[in-house]
Structures are given as structure tokens and as C-alpha cells.
Amino acid sequence: SLNKLDYTLCCTFLKGMANFYTGQEVLLNNDSKAKIIQIDLNNISSPLILCEDEFIDLTKTDDLYIVEIL
Q1: Which domain of life is it from (predicted)?
Q2: Contacting residues for 25 by C-beta, under 8 A, at least 6 apart
Q3: pLDDT for position 67
């Protein structure tokens, strides 16, 4: 339950995690490789990625998602 977690500690953890994964290469469900450019802390599973010179906001697409961090 979220009521049992320390909000400040969770935010610090999420910010650190977002910084760690920014710049990482990922594999998408269409077998394309992309780079994580920015992670929204309110939606960490759908970052902004760069795929073949195109920026893609995964929060705005339902048919594309990350399957593996390389």
C-alpha cells in the first residue's frame, strides 16, 4: 500500500532509476532498437525514445512498447 511507503524516499529512488536508464538502448516489440531519451516519473514504463532519428513518445502509442533493456 502506498500509505506505508515514504513519499520522499520513493521519489528519490524513482529519480535515480530514471537517471540510470536514460541513455540505455532498448529493444521494442517490433524488433527495432531505440535509445531512452527521457523518462516521465509519472509514467516510467513509457519513456520518450529515439528510434532511427525519430523521437517517439511511448505514452502516445498503444502498439509500440519496450520488451527488453539491452
Answers
A1: Bacteria
A2: 33, 34, 35, 36, 69, 70
A3: 97
